[in-house]
């Protein structure tokens, strides 16, 4: 199934597009103290940009952390296609599907305070399938399951089924960990994304499963597929995932509708690369939702467009220093002091235009639904969570910087 994949000859971005990307790279590198960063951009395998910044080149190899999960998910799906593993196969109380979708309830390990052994011995934090919680333990278990069912080491499976057939010469597994152990280059990741997108790794149906928001037992969508977060960026459905491991950060993304492929790698731990990935989408894709308010006919999964509109208006009001208090309940009016409104103006006004509003999730607590959004202003991001009273007025409001 896996034919060799050579990316086509390079195409050029326009000077304006290149300059916009360079400007955000400079911001990100300065903010996160990055000395070397590589970026690759392609569309359906045709390279638009392959560039290194600082002490890096387009072919510099970095550890990619949790981007490893995409490869692990693909190896599992290959075995399902071959009949050696089933989605209903169970280990440690969770099915393969629940492990892939991060709905197992198994706590994550972090290599220090909680080891793999401790995580596996801990009780699930919720009943499998009922909630979403990102956990490295899930993909560690998928790696061990692959080894036990195929009787082949994970590293050999990766090499035999993916890296050699695709010609990923700069991709390896320096640390035996199916959750975060791989290393690669931006160029190799572009090859990987194109091979995956075009059905040369797993079947088209399984590509769809990897890049579609999975569901909980309640029917609610999770915004996570298999090894990818499922985003709605400027109206474009995008599968994306960050990767963090000591000393390195990574991010890759695939715009589902038109095959735009992006890989960003950096030689600094905990570097926030997501704004750079989003910038590429913003620069190269005409926004489908230029008003940044959800289309009432085509909202994101589980998104309430009216709430999205309120979120956008609240930010504009904070920037002006004048809040429409008629939309707030008496209790929130009392809690939201003039000093807090002034602080909101001081915080948001200098940031300029709100460039992206993302619905993240909805959580019910004691019968009240809390709507969570991520707000992007150029490079900076904030969380906003709000809830409504029965009369439709905003009853609670919380805003905090996104420091992750």
Mean pLDDT: 89
Cα shape = globular
Rg of Cα set: 22 Å
* CATH C-level class of the largest domain: Alpha Beta
Percentage of residues in strands: 15-25%
CATH superfamily of the largest domain: DD-peptidase/beta-lactamase superfamily
Per the CATH scheme, the topology name of the largest domain is Beta-lactamase
- Tally of helical runs: 12
Low-confidence segments, given as residue ranges, are 1-10, 290-297
- Number of β-strand runs: 14
Supply the CATH architecture of the largest domain: 3-Layer(aba) Sandwich
Alpha-beta content class: alpha+beta
SSE order: HEEEHEEHHHHEHHEEEEHHHHEEEE
The tally of domains stands at 2
Strand order of the largest sheet: 2-1-10-9-8-7
Overview of the molecule:
By secondary structure, the chain is of the alpha+beta class. The chain has 2 domains: 15-284, DD-peptidase/beta-lactamase superfamily (Beta-lactamase); 305-401, Nuclear Transport Factor 2, Chain: A, CATH 3.10.450. It has helices spanning 15-31, 68-82, 96-100, 116-121, 136-150, 154-166, 186-197, 204-210, 274-284, 305-320, 330-335, 338-348, and strands spanning 36-43, 46-54, 62-63, 90-91, 94-95, 183-184, 229-233, 236-245, 248-255, 260-266, 356-365, 368-377, 380-388, 394-401. A 6-stranded antiparallel sheet has the order 2-1-10-9-8-7, with helices on both faces. α1 runs antiparallel to α9 (274-284), α2 packs parallel to α5 and α10 packs across α12 (338-348). The radius of gyration is 22 Å and the shape is globular. The two termini are 39 Å apart.
């Amino acid at each position: 199934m896996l034919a060799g994949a050579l990316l086509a000859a390079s195409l050029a971005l326009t000077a304006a597009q290149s300059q916009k990307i360079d400007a955000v790279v400079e911001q990100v590198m300065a903010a996160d103290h990055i000395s070397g960063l590589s970026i690759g951009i392609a569309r359906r395998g045709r390279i638009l940009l392959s560039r290194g910044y600082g002490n890096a080149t387009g072919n510099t190899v970095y550890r990619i952390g949790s981007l490893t999960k995409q490869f692990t998910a693909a190896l599992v799906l290959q075995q399902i296609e071959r009949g050696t593993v089933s989605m209903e196969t169970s280990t440690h109380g969770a099915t393969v599907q629940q492990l892939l979708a991060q709905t197992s309830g198994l706590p994550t390990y972090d290599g220090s305070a909680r080891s793999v052994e401790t995580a596996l011995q801990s009780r699930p934090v919720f009943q499998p399938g009922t909630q979403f919680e990102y956990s490295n333990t899930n993909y560690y278990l998928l790696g061990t399951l692959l080894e036990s069912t195929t009787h082949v080491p994970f590293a050999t499976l990766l090499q035999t089924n993916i890296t050699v057939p695709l010609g990923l010469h700069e991709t390896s597994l320096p640390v035996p960990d199916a959750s975060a152990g791989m290393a690669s280059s931006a160029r190799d990741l572009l090859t990987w994304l194109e091979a995956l997108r075009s059905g040369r790794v797993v079947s088209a149906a399984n590509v769809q499963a990897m890049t579609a928001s999975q569901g909980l037992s309640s029917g609610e969508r999770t915004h996570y597929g298999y090894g990818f977060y499922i985003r709605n960026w400027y109206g474009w459905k995008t599968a994306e995932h960050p990767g963090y491991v000591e000393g390195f950060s990574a991010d890759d993304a695939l715009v589902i509708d038109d095959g735009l492929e992006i890989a960003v790698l950096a030689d600094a731990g905990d570097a926030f690369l997501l704004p750079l990935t989003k910038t590429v989408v913003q620069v190269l894709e005409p926004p489908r939702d230029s008003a940044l308010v959800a289309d009432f006919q085509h909202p994101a999964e589980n998104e309430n467009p009216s709430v999205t509109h309120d979120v956008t208006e609240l930010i504009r009001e904070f920037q002006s220093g004048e809040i429409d208090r008629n939309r707030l309940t008496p209790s929130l009016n009392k809690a939201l002091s003039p000093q807090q409104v002034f602080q909101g103006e001081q915080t948001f006004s200098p940031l300029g235009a709100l460039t992206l509003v993302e619905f993240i999730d909805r959580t019910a607590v004691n019968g009240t639904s809390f709507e969570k959004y991520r707000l992007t202003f150029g490079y900076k991001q904030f969380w906003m969570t709000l809830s409504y009273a029965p009369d439709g007025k905003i009853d609670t409001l919380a805003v905090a910087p996104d420091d992750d």
